[in-house]
Amino acid sequence: MKIAHFSRIGFILAAAGSAVGLGNIWKFPYIAGEYGGGAFVLVYLVTVLSIGFSIMIAEMLIGYLGRMDAAKSFEKLAPSNKSRWRLAGMMGIWAGLLIMTFYSVVIGWILHYIVVAFSALPSSVAEAESAFNTLLHDSIITQIFYHTLSFILISAILVRGIKAGIEKLNLILMPMLFIIVGGMFLYALTLDGFSQAWDFMFSPDWSKLNSEAFVIAVGHAFFTLSLGMGAILTYSASLPKEVNLVKSSLYVVALDTIIALLAGLMLFTFLYQYGAEPSKGPGLVFISLPAVFYEMGTLGNAFAILFFFALAFAGLTSAVSLTEPMVQYLIDKFDMTRFKAVVVAGGFFYLVGIIALLSNTTAYGDMLHFGSKNFFDWVDYITAAFMLPFGGLLMAIFIGYKIPKKQVFAAVGKSLGRAFSVWYFILRYIAPVALIIVMLNLLGVITF
Ligand code: TRP
Q1: What is the pLDDT of residues 36-70, one digit of tens each?
Q2: Residue 444 pLDDT > 80, yes or no?
Q3: Which end of the chain has the least Cβ crowding within 10 Å, N or C?
Q4: Which of 25, 218, 226, 380 to probe ligand 1 with, by most ligand atoms within 8 A of CB?
Q5: What is the pLDDT of residues 278-306, one digit of tens each?
Q6: CATH number of the domain that residue 49 is part of
């Protein structure tokens, strides 16, 4: 039973808050850096605007029509095989919590860096690198402390519920995030490094686009839009009836893409301007950037504070959306109070998050290393490269084949207008084929 509804603007900001996250400001720049920029960015952009946008509408539709938690919505709407479709929802709910295990740890690093920005920035890249490595590999207590803080912040918002918690958080933090990123971008525009950053992001070097880069780009398109696991679905279940889903999707996709591009351009401008490297991996915003901020003097110090606040805002608004599907599920399924549901869902990512965190440390890293990756990287990889695209595939099939076309048309036909048939075609053919290719590649069945 849903009592609280989002307002229209509240929903758009909450969905955008879910989408705009660490994926945009932390992950996107460093994977773009690792996979060589331009060509990778192009694959990401094309996927976001075609398949991503289409599945965003489909996922919103499932929540909007189902009005229940992710598992129940699938179950209720499926014309047959109800319990199997329920599993699609369950997989998503778990994917969210799995993502949270490392997401909360990274939010913890960011909270730590807010403190660093207020006290003393590292005075060189070498110093910044050793500081970050020390945090990651040796400072177990510090990391657990900040991971705990992150867990407390996220839980405190979630227990307040949709209206007073999630909506309010987004109404406050999202505008601040836009102002900070927008303002820093405008400053970056005035620097010489901007043209190099632009080239790096937008001139494709196709030789750098191997199949791994392709899979990561498609996976990231899902990750950055919060697609394929029921976060958007769960929010949409609390929508007032008269909302235009197509327009809402468009706003969310546009805001997410704009923030990713602005953040990327801004970051690379700063890096080029001060001769730092774009290919630092996950440490990019924690190593190269703080050193660059130091070089910039007083202004840099202010930027560092603002930047890490913005990053924390982006992370928190996404984190609540990753956890809320499980919270909603526990409330619906087991009649739990919201408080208890938050404790259970939060407790899971908190405890498993400690394992993720330990897997990066020197002391426990070997124990938590399996094959080519440690626990932390495996969770990131399996969720983004497999679970989300798979969830997206199921959603495309669900709306494209399972729900009667008439019902789908009744919900979004008018707002899509003539684009309806294009959208429907993408859901039925393009998205499934593309996603199956990605997954077969991932499983090593085909290579390209
Ligand atoms: N989109 C967020 C980011 O870019 C992460 C996120 C939030 C997410 N909710 C999600 C990813 C649901 C996948 C599914 O950081």
Answers
A1: 889 999 999 999 999 999 999 999 999 999 999 99
A2: no
A3: N
A4: 226
A5: 777 888 899 989 999 999 999 999 999 99
A6: 1.10.4160.10
Q: Rounded to two decimals, what is the model's pTM?
A: 0.93
User: Could you give the 3-state DSSP secondary structure of residue 262?
Assistant: helix
**φ and ψ at 336, to 5 degrees?**
-70, 155
Residue 448 domain flag: no
**Shortest-distance atom of ligand 1 to CA 22:** 15
How many domains does the chain divide into? 1
Domain assignment present for 152: yes
Nearest CA to ligand 1 atom 10: 226
- Indicate the angle between helix axes 431-442 and 388-397, nearest 10 degrees: 150
Q: Which atom of ligand 1 is nearest to the CA of 225?
A: 1
**Helix pair 82-118, 140-158: axis angle to 10 deg:** 120
Q: State the CB neighbour count (10 A cutoff) for residue 42.
A: 17
Structural domain that includes position 187: 8-442
Atom number, ligand 1, closest to the C-alpha of residue 227: 14
**Cα(295) to centroid of ligand 1, in Å?**
32
Structure-block tokens of residue 183: 């303002």
Ligand 1 mean position, distance from CA 184 (Å): 23
